[in-house]
Amino acid sequence: MESLRERDGLLLKNWYIAALSHELGKKPIQRTLYDTPLVLFRDGDGKATCFPDRCLHRHAFLSKGHVFKGELVCPYHGWLYNQSGHVSCVPSEGPNGSPSKSLKLKSFPCVEQDGVIWVWMDLDEDTSHAPCPTTPSWRFPEASNPKWVSYFMITDFENEVTNLAENFVDVPHTIFVHKGWFRDEKAIPKKVPTVVETKEGVVTVTYFQEKDEFSWGARMLLNPRGNPMTHTDQFIMPNLTRVDYNFGSKNGFIINSQISPVSTLKSRVYTYIAYKIPLIGRILRPIISFYTRQVIRQDIVIMKNQGDSLKSNFKTTFRSTEADEVHKEIERLRHYGVKGDSKLMTYESKKDISFWV
């Protein structure tokens, strides 16, 4: 079977989260994206820097070393790497040694914003398909709005980006996987008129269910006044999902997931939660954190279930129904992204569907 890097093709040419800002302190850390071990450290100015986690000398992990005056020190023979990746010192060559200018690690473009560290995963100098933008275009919603409370959660899943993205914007599974926590399986089934629209690399799903609501516990936390709930889901290429619940004009709840591909059937998901509850929002933070963690744990189990099935036969022959229209659109966009097809940004579709939940 091909590696994840091979199967994802030109999807490498994108920004992916490697770590949260608070995870990177004075010591270097290792992260893996697309089967590639990375070392992240802060230079003398505190700027996040990212290299392949492999010393040029004898290929030791640089992440097991330390930072000295803003430079990365290999734990094996003490080679020093400056922020641009050049070897600035080889201790065995003595105090007057001058390392060859050819001794240089390629650095991955690295940007820190909104409390996360993004890495552009492609080091290929061929920019004919997708040159590296200066910064990631995605900004986490309401991150700087003082009326909203927000936080991140990190979760490792035994599955891959496409399947995880589909799970995160899938409504029918909530009755069975999240029963009692998210929706009530004892509620009377209702027909959900839905519009699925794809445009400019984004799939937007708008639900028009009358009197849509959460389970009792979730409703008491997020919508105690019982205001009408509106619900939209989005998939944003290549690996982001956004779920919005609004309860009237005063209360809101956003789940934003960025899925970082680690290796075959392994992903790390950075889930950004933002909510607005007047007066008591910050007091409720521990309870809402506990609640959202429980829901994610249930998704871990079902995604491992699917992942374990795929291990035995990686070929997918999904049989879809009308409720799976969003799944098919996500798969279509991801396929365009793998191939570098221009249809990724030009393809448009809008369908009215309905399903029961």
Fraction in helix: 10-25%
Strand residue content: 25-35%
Q: Determine Rg (CA atoms, Å).
A: 23 Å
Overall geometry comes to globular
Mean pLDDT: 93
Strand adjacency order, main sheet: 11-17-16-15-14-13-12-18
* Number of β-strand runs: 18
Count of the domains = 2
Tally of contiguous helical segments: 7
* Biggest pleated sheet: 8 strands, antiparallel
Q: What is the structural class?
A: alpha+beta
Cα end-to-end separation = 37 Å
Q: Name the poorly predicted regions.
A: none
Q: What is the C-level CATH assignment of the largest domain? A: Alpha Beta
| SSE series | HEEEEEEEEEEEHHEEHEEEEHHHE
CATH topology of the largest domain: Naphthalene 1,2-dioxygenase Alpha Subunit, Chain A, domain 1
In CATH, the homologous superfamily of the largest domain goes by the name Naphthalene 1,2-dioxygenase Alpha Subunit, Chain A, domain 1
CATH-derived architecture of the largest domain: Alpha-Beta Complex
Features of this protein?
single chain, 357 residues, alpha+beta, Rieske Iron-sulfur Protein, Naphthalene 1,2-dioxygenase Alpha Subunit, Chain A, domain 1, 2 domains, eight-stranded antiparallel sheet, globular
Topology:
Elements: H1 4-8, E1 15-20, E2 29-33, E3 36-42, E4 48-52, E5 66-68, E6 71-73, E7 80-81, E8 87-89, E9 110-113, E10 116-120, E11 149-157, H2 161-168, H3 174-177, E12 191-199, E13 202-207, H4 216-222, E14 229-236, E15 240-247, E16 251-263, E17 266-276, H5 285-312, H6 325-339, H7 343-346, E18 349-356
Antiparallel strand pairs: 1-10, 2-3, 3-4, 5-6, 6-7, 7-8, 9-10, 11-17, 12-13, 12-18, 13-14, 14-15, 15-16, 16-17
